[in-house]
Amino acid sequence: MKKIILSLAVVLVSLVSMAQKPEYYQAMGETLGQYATCKSVADFHALGNKFQMIANVEKSEWLPLYYHAQCYILMSFMEQDATKKDGYLDVAEKSVTSLLEMVPAESEVSVLQAFYLVGRLVVNPMERGQEYSGLSGQALGKALALDASNPRAQLLKLQMDMGSAQFTGQDPKSFCPQAKELLANWDNFKPKSPIHPNWGKDQVEGVVKGCE
Amino acid sequence: MKTAVIIITSLLFSLNVFSQTVVTGKVTQEKGEPMPGANAYLQGTYDGTSSGENGEFRFKTNKTGTQTLLVEFIGYESFSQVVELKGDTIRLHVKLKEAFNELNAVTITAGTFEAGDKKQAVTITPIDMLTTAGAVGDVFGALQSLPGTTVNGESGRLFVKGGDSDESQTYIDGSLVSVPYNSSAPNLATRGRFSPWMFKGTIFSTGGYSAEYGQALSSVLLLSTNDMPAEDQLDLSLLSVGLEVAGTKLWKNGAVTGTLSYNNLAPYMSLAPQNYDWGKYPESATGAVSVRQKTSKTGMFKFYSSFDNGSFTLSQENLDAAGIPIDYRLKNGNQFLNASWNDKLGERWSVNTAASFTNNTDDIQFDQTAVAKQTQGTHLKSVFSYPFSEKLILKMGGELFSKKFTQNVQMPDETHDNSFLNHTFSGFTEAQIYASTKFVTRIGGRVEYSDYLNSFTVSPRLSAAYKITDKSQFSAAYGWFYQNPVDDYLLYTALLKPERADHYTFSFQSSANQRTIRVELYYKDYKELVKLTGGEFYLPTSYNNSGSGYAKGVDLFWRDKKSIKNGDYWISYSYVDTKRDYRNFPEQAIPTFSSKHNLSVVYKHWFGNLRSLAGVNFRYSSPRVFNDPNSTVFNGEKMLAYRSLDLSWSFLYRQNIIVYGAVTNVLDFKNEFGQRYSNNPDANGRYPGAAIQPGSNQFYVLGCFITLTRKGNANQLDKIE
Prior knowledge:
Oligomer: heterodimer
Largest interface: A-B, 47 and 52 residues
Number of strands of chain A: 0
Strand content of chain B: over 45%
Distance between the termini of chain B: 50 Å
Shape of chain A: globular
């Protein structure tokens, strides 16, 4: 019962804010809808451009910048050329830095920061491993401290732990119970609005599938 | 629900869909190449789109009246144009101009090996130093795998481009390290005092460096220490030659690390065959504290202090007494202090301030002679930089080097007490001017005044770089470099002037897809080198500045991290042609420290299934010359060529435990560094000699590194991978 009231309240609050800025919510909703169709660096580039455009208008909203950074991080993962990868991450870094100033207590932003740092790490794990695994671990730690229930923070932590397990002779499957639990509880976490970050369930499903 | 909202809002907004304007156009670069992915939109609205593959864009808008169309692309100046929206179609051709950006602009690489994490042309990093097989964890040893250097097995120090080892200077966080090497016995190799773990970046400049650096004729090595550690941790290193414990504690915006280490070569040296007899095996104890504190959003304060004590007794044949062994005892004490602060002053000014202090004492005893040496060095430096624009950055600063050197020699029937105190004041300024992202020049100058020598010098410095393509560039550097004569001469005379070298460097570098190639040609003109007149060493007039010399050569470097999966290798080759007439040389001759041909091949391979990083390093230096006093030809003898094949293996046992092993000269090549001779002729009028051998033909080391954190999962992998 309590949960229903809570979720109703969340919906109401978001409806009210949506009513105040219908154009913003519409633009965000439409742009977010295009995520699914993005397949290439160019697609994400175009999507990032849209979020940039919205961010330019909505200077007090953090979500457009959040998705803008995310697009560029995803681009860096899809790109092969190391120099270009860093170039995309330079763009993402700017947005992440602004976000950290704008909403320092937002758990999702710290998750994004960790994600960005992982992007830097994978460009050159040999040379960046030490510094960036530490930094992204710190960012995740902050994300979990701000909101221990944030499933994206838990997902990233799980992926990092499983990644390093491969190298240390530990069985990555020992993290499977954790992954299953995360998937089972995934839907309990309610985003504050339809345009708040809500990604990651596919990845956990992938992890759980890999366990079988 | 989301759909509902979208429908409602769409309904609200579709009410005014009456006059739609189509904005279309093509985005190209200045030269006409189409630019896909540019963001074209009406300022302050959500109406816009990205350009497609052919640079074309097209979007519809319901806005009317006067609007501003913006076209943006990262790295390009944004385009804006006022448009009148009247319900028809607007077509535009947008040309975007590349924006000036210091990060993408050309950098001067002549003479410089720079390793910063985000630099495009990474050549060697601190991780490389740790994993280069032949270096066995020594900073200077690792640098000897780079072109421009010559291995001198009896010294272990850096010899750069035909220069002597004291022509190179080492800086940590901007301030000078007066005594960067451990004290060693004559003709035995030494190592650097600092662990590569301490550093996050290195710049090794083998010539033509900025006006910011003085008092070095050949090279400067700039080491920057790690920033904030990520978490509290305890590091343990257990090696076959010693052990080390380091603890790190964090607080808000700051951290402290305390390190204690103890090395004793007795167990190792008594097992492994040695070429010399040690009366007392080398032993040393070090304590160090380092503090890092963020002073503001942009500011960082770093402090490092270390106390080091070492001793040994080595037995060497006394060639002046029919080869009877005599003991050479050495006790070294070294206190080093280093502090730096970097921050922004206001919007534009930035400041780097650094200070260092060294107190180094060596107490040496051999035969009936006791020598006590003390070096007290202080270095203070401040550099300010101010960007007048993105394309013009001015840097200026001042420095003070103070050095007091004292030497006391006691022999049975005589005593010598000598010392000198010198202050060198210097000021420098330098402008970095970008004509475009493709062309940069750096023009500067430096003045120095030394009070002990009463000398005043002016050093112009000039360098430039031109980017031919995205991946390739030419770079050139020219400058005058001054350095005060070595302590051994200044003890007895103040009549000398600083020695001088003029550098001419020209280099080409191309870097793409994790492969780098570099070719560098250089010429060095040595002037005003110290010459001994042949008079008594303690007379000030026995020294003058009439020496001279030259060094010229070519350095080649190739690094490839791409071609071999999980493999990374580099090849360095240097050709040096050098002669000089200085010190006690009777004529112009090749100095003993220079090899004509120098080759180093480094290979590293990551074996994922074995969780191991293996390293191989081969080095070759062609025979160097040495002088036989029994011969009439000066420096007419040749040593053996130097060859060494070194192996290392790092195994990640657990996430926080690395096991490390290394062997140098695994094929047991015979390396000898010429001969040393008696000071006085024997009864037959000959100077007896003995071969100078390395301390041991091979060196083995085994170790284990453990990191403990609260979470218990610190990732050692990254350290070795």
